[in-house]
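Hi all, posting the design record for the shared folder.

TITLE: backbone redesign
STEP: 1 of 1
STRUCTURE INPUT:
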């Protein structure tokens, strides 16, 4: 008889980091959709809309940086922020991006057990 294993309960910090990573990725998708939708019709209004969207990244990044991870789940959530194309376009820290890529790749392949 196979026994079911319950997923470990996440700490409040790790839950918050996962929420922040999800919100960051959703905002990144919205920015990419906006860019694709207005690729040929840049206007002051569409530029203002994009600026409003991108202003949401800073608070998410700041809260993520200020929230300590309590487990590998939290660390992976923090790494997910680095993997965003928007983050890569705004920052110049290939070492951090490499670490984020490795952590997320290993976790996706089942190489990291959380």
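Okay, here is what came back for every position:
SEQUENCE:
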């Amino acid at each position: 008889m196979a026994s079911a294993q319950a997923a470990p309960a996440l700490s409040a910090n790790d839950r918050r980091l996962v929420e922040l990573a999800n919100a960051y990725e959703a905002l990144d998708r919205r920015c990419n959709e906006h860019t694709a939708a207005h690729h040929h019709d840049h206007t002051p209004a569409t530029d203002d809309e994009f600026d409003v969207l991108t202003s949401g990244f800073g608070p998410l990044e700041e809260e993520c940086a200020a929230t300590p991870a309590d487990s590998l789940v939290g660390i992976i959530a923090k790494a997910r922020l680095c993997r965003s194309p928007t983050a890569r376009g705004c920052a110049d820290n290939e070492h951090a991006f490499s670490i984020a890529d490795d952590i997320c790749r290993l976790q996706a392949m089942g190489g990291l057990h959380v």
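COMMENT: The chain has a mean pLDDT of 83.
Let me know if anyone wants the other runs.
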